[in-house]
């Protein structure tokens, strides 16, 4: 009996031990539940919410960019891409899909593997499809589950490359931007401004993206709409530029390298800004192709460079405007002071020549400017000294950044004796004064700076910051502080440059308005004379600065043509074309621009055919 | 043999009965919620099917309470052989589901013989063990293994029904331990486990189907590929965790009906429940299972004979093992082994078999007094 009860108690013991083990097991489960539901509950609740909810961004229509007369420069257009939803896509159909799209199977596979973070996020295979391509794919879509046409919004730049440096272009956010909280409201796949005004005012052009919050199941199928916030269209932007000016200048360059800037003298508003060669912003939208990018970046003419504010050139004879003003203001000359130009001037062993080897003879300020006599300004330079020239150049906004909002601007250089001592550790020589007085040597400026100077001369001495929006509050940077009489004298001479028989810019004489201006030729190499037989890269840069109408200036401009040779023959016609376009009546302007848009369409169609 | 007398009703184990009825009712409710089809008004009929099986199960339970369990001992041998034949039949003519053959169709009815086999196996093992004198030595232990366990284990592994194979082996181990083992036998088991672990692991690994291998990998690191193999575990944890203290409320869960949870009405039913009822609801549900298991152990303790004790113990341990593996998997503390949660998971054969098992359990308890007849 005792052994029996012993055996029984052993069984009880074992069952009890099993019972304890089970209790421990239950405790473990309770602890685990506590951990998951109480300690980490919040976190898992959020994960379950994000599981079931998808936030789909609806890109806002981008603000339209207009010129100062209300001409639309850009248009929002639908942007089609062919995409697949990885979750619904049968990968065994890749070969067939590859055949249909004419895209290597390997590339499709790679895109699916590399770009898909989740099977619920679509992968774009090919972007920027034409209507024909969309139709072709739509007709065959039913053969490929998970394949669909993704419709986005993109930009069309109506005037193609004209004004590209100013207007800019759109692109997808770069990986760095994608991490930047300032771009967190950009829906995936949407474009943002990456250059120019598009970039500068991106935030306001972009508008506020809308949202669709939907509930989805594990396959990403929409169950129901929880909330929809419509997008708010981006703000329209009215630029200060006149597209007619822009277009006319652009065409007048005829593919030559250089820059053009036009300003409204009374406000500093930029009426036109061209840097040639340009690029086609329409090509950037799609995500520029590798070939196109190579063509742009390896082009030795550097189309992406904004020459109007990023390139510095010796101002050449345009600098004589500064010499004249300084000379008159400092009373070292007056309008009757006469210099005898014998075609050269001697200082010790050195000879400084006038461009006219035979000499201008006895010449006063007016003729000296009209005919651009070098010897006259050697004399003026000698009388003033470099430091006084420096001072007046600065008063007209040279040697410093103009402050235009486009950025990456160059400051140019206006030397003085201190500058030379500081940087070259050498004293200033008189010969250097001669060279710099005619805008060669150390002195350098950007086309934008010369336009600012020209407008200050035209408006009575006010140096404005160049503005790129219409009706923006003018920003007066400084007053040159020179007498109206001095400026009047100089302006009269500048009118002579264009309108008098011996003027160097007779080619800019216009029937529409009276233009005043000054040519300039900036030496590239130390040769006295430029001939048309020289290789292009050694030819001189051609300058022309202008304003019109002379009696009541409404536009001031500067033109630079790299290696253009003589300013009067190459640069002046460009300024003339732009100024005349500015003077057109509103109806004529409209007509002119309509023609330009049609032309831009035609070149595009031609390019497509070639492709 | 089928007399139902006053004492039978008097001694009927209402606690166990009501506990499983309660759990099954919760199960039907949870299946209803898990198989909702959001965005449509269509309701999956699965919960109705489960209710039908629930009723059949109760009938089965009553049948298996009504006769003395001694008959089960007498019929064990024949039943066991029939069970083996069924397992072979599954291998030969079974339907494949999820890469494994588990179903036999008999006309319009399909059923999973393995569900019943577990009970037959426990009957056979109980009879075999109760006829032996414990504690068991090495030779006796091996004899039990080869006579009763080896053949079905191999057959189950071939199907492959990894879950049931593991459960069968675990029932065998825990039952011989309960019977009592001599020191040498214990040492042998320990030694074999240690020596064969890598070897066995290798064979097991090769014998596993890809989806089973993935589950093991995913268990070790669920973050490996959230949308791939670790997906089940992650989604299950999200479902359970997002329930927080009081749950999202009945019919407000999203993980199940939105199909983020795989096997939402079967293996992961607990996750669906936990999401909607929270920690508080889980504690109540766990309490019911705890009651069922402890009551089962008590029945084993109080059984009037060795066979009844082994029978009650075997059935209770079967529920226990199922319960822990399933919950452990749902909570991400055990690998994903596709076994259902008794009484909760959708599955008619399993529900019927579980009710019959509980019938046997109640049978043993009801007839616990030696002087009953």
Keywords:
heterodimer, A: 611 residues, alpha+beta, 5-stranded antiparallel β-sheet, 19% strand, B: 373 residues, mainly alpha, 3-stranded antiparallel β-sheet, 13 helices
Structure characterization notes:
The longest helix of chain A is centred in the first third of the chain and has 38 residues, at 2-39. Chain A is α+β, with helices and mostly antiparallel strands and 611 residues long. In chain A, 41% of the residues lie in helices and 19% in strands. Chain B is mainly α and 373 residues long. In chain B, 68% of the residues lie in helices and 3% in strands. Chain B starts with 5 loop residues before the first helix and ends in a 7-residue tail after the last helix. The mean pLDDT of chain B is 83. Chains A and B meet through α1 and α2 of A and α7, α10, α11 and α12 of B.
Sheet with most strands of chain A: 5 strands, antiparallel
Radius of gyration of chain A: 35 Å
Number of strands of chain B: 3
Strand content of chain A: 15-25%
Order of adjacent strands in the largest pleated sheet of chain B: 1-2-3
Distance between the termini of chain B: 12 Å
- The overall pLDDT of chain A, averaged over residues, is 86
Could you estimate the helical fraction of the residues of chain B in percent? 55-70%
**Spans of at least 5 consecutive residues with low confidence of chain A:** none
Question: Can you count the beta strands of chain A?
Answer: 21
Q: Could you tell me the radius of gyration of chain B in angstroms? A: 21 Å
Strand order of the largest sheet of chain A: 12-11-21-20-19
Query: What kind of oligomer do you see?
Result: heterodimer
The most extensive interface, with participating residues per chain, is:
A-B, 40 and 46 residues
Helix content range of the residues of chain A, please? 40-55%
Contiguous low-pLDDT stretches of chain B (5 residues minimum) are none
End-to-end separation of chain A:
105 Å
Content of β-strand of chain B? under 5%
């Amino acid at each position: 009996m005792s052994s029996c009860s012993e055996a029984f108690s052993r069984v009880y013991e074992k069952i009890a031990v099993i019972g304890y083990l089970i209790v421990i097991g239950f405790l473990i489960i309770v602890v685990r539940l506590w951990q998951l539901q109480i300690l980490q509950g919040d976190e898992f609740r959020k994960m379950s919410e994000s599981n079931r909810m998808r936030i789909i961004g609806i890109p806002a229509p981008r603000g339209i960019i207009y010129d100062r007369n209300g001409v639309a420069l850009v248009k929002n257009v639908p942007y089609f891409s062919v995409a697949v939803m990885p979750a619904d896509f049968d990968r065994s159909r890749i070969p067939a899909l590859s055949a249909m799209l004419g895209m290597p199977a390997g590339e499709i596979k790679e895109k699916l593997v590399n770009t898909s973070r989740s099977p619920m996020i679509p992968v774009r295979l090919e972007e920027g499809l034409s209507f024909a391509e969309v139709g072709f794919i739509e007709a065959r879509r039913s053969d490929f589950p998970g394949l669909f046409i993704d419709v986005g919004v993109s930009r069309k730049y109506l005037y193609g490359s004209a004004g590209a440096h100013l207007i800019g272009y759109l692109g997808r956010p770069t990986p760095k931007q994608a991490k930047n909280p300032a771009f967190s409201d950009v829906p995936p796949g949407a474009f943002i401004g990456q250059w120019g005004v598009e970039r500068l005012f991106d935030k306001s052009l972009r508008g506020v993206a809308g949202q669709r919050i939907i509930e989805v199941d594990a396959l990403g199928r929409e169950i129901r709409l929880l909330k929809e916030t419509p997008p708010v269209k981006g703000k329209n932007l009215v630029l200060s530029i006149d597209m007619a000016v822009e277009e006319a200048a652009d065409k007048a360059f005829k593919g030559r390298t250089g820059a053009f800037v036009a300003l409204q003298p009374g406000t500093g508003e930029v009426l036109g800004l061209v840097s040639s060669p340009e690029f086609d912003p329409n090509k950037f939208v799609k995500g520029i192709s590798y070939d196109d990018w190579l063509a742009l970046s390896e082009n030795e003419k550097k189309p992406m460079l904004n020459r109007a504010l990023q390139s510095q050139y010796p101002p050449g004879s345009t600098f004589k405007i500064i010499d004249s003003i300084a000379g008159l203001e400092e009373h070292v000359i007056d309008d009757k002071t006469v210099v005898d130009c014998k075609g050269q001037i001697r200082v010790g062993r050195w000879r400084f020549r006038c461009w006219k080897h035979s000499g201008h003879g006895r010449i006063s300020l007016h003729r000296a400017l009209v005919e651009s006599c070098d010897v006259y300004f050697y004399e003026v330079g000698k009388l003033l000294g470099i430091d006084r020239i420096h001072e007046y150049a600065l008063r007209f906004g040279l040697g410093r950044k103009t402050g235009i909002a486009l950025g990456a601007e160059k400051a140019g250089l206006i030397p003085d004796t201190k500058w030379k001592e500081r940087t070259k550790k050498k004293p200033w020589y008189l010969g250097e004064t001669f060279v710099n007085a005619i805008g060669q040597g150390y002195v350098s400026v950007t086309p934008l700076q010369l336009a600012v100077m020209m407008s200050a001369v035209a408006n009575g001495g006010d140096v404005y910051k160049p503005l790129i929006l219409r009706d923006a509050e003018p920003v007066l940077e400084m007053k040159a502080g020179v007498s109206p009489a001095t400026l009047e004298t100089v302006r009269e001479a500048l009118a002579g440059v264009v309108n008098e028989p011996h003027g160097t810019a007779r080619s800019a004489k216009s029937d529409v308005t009276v233009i005043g201006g000054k040519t300039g030729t900036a030496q590239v190499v130390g040769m006295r004379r430029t001939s048309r037989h020289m290789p292009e890269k050694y030819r001189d840069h051609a300058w022309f600065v202008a304003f019109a109408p002379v009696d009541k200036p409404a536009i001031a401009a500067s033109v630079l043509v790299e290696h253009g040779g003589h300013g009067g023959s190459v640069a002046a016609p460009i300024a003339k074309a732009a100024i005349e376009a500015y003077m057109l009546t509103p109806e004529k302007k409209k007509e002119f621009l309509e023609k330009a848009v049609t032309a831009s369409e035609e070149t595009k169609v031609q390019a497509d055919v070639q492709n | 043999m089928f007399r139902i007398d006053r004492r039978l009703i008097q001694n009927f184990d209402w606690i166990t009965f009501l506990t499983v009825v309660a759990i099954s009712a919760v199960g039907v409710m949870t299946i209803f919620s898990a198989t909702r089809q959001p965005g449509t008004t269509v309701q999956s009929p699965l919960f109705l099917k489960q209710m039908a099986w629930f009723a059949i199960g109760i009938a089965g339970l009553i049948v298996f309470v009504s006769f003395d369990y001694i008959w089960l001992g007498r019929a064990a041998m024949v039943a066991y052989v029939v069970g083996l034949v069924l397992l072979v039949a599954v291998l030969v003519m079974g339907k494949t589901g999820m890469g494994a053959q588990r179903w036999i169709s008999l006309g319009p009815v399909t059923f999973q013989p393995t569900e019943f086999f577990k009970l037959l196996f426990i009957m056979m093992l109980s009879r075999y063990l109760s006829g032996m004198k414990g504690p068991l030595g090495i030779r006796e232990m091996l004899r039990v293994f080869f006579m009763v366990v080896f053949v079905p284990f191999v057959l189950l592994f071939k199907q492959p029904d990894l879950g049931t194979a593991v459960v069968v082996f675990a029932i065998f181990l825990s039952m011989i331990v309960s019977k009592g083992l001599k020191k040498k036998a214990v040492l042998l088991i320990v030694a074999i486990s240690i020596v064969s672990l890598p070897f066995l692991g290798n064979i097991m690994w090769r014998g596993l189907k890809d989806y089973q291998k993935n589950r093991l990998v995913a268990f070790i690191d669920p973050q490996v590929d959230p949308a791939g193999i670790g997906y089940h575990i992650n989604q299950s944890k999200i479902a359970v965790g997002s329930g927080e203290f009081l749950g999202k409320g009945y019919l407000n869960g999203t993980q199940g009906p939105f199909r983020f949870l795989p096997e939402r009405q079967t293996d992961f039913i607990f996750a669906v429940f936990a999401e909607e009822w929270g920690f508080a609801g889980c504690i109540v549900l766990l309490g019911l299972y705890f009651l069922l298991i402890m009551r089962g152990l008590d029945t084993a303790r109080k059984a009037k004979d060795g066979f009844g004790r082994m029978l009650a113990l075997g059935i209770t341990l079967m529920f226990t093992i199922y319960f822990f593996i399933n919950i452990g998997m749902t909570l991400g503390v055990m690998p994903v082994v596709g076994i259902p949660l008794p009484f909760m998971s959708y599955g008619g054969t399993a529900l019927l078999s579980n009710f019959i098992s509980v019938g046997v359990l109640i049978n043993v308890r009801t007839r616990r007094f030696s002087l009953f007849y």
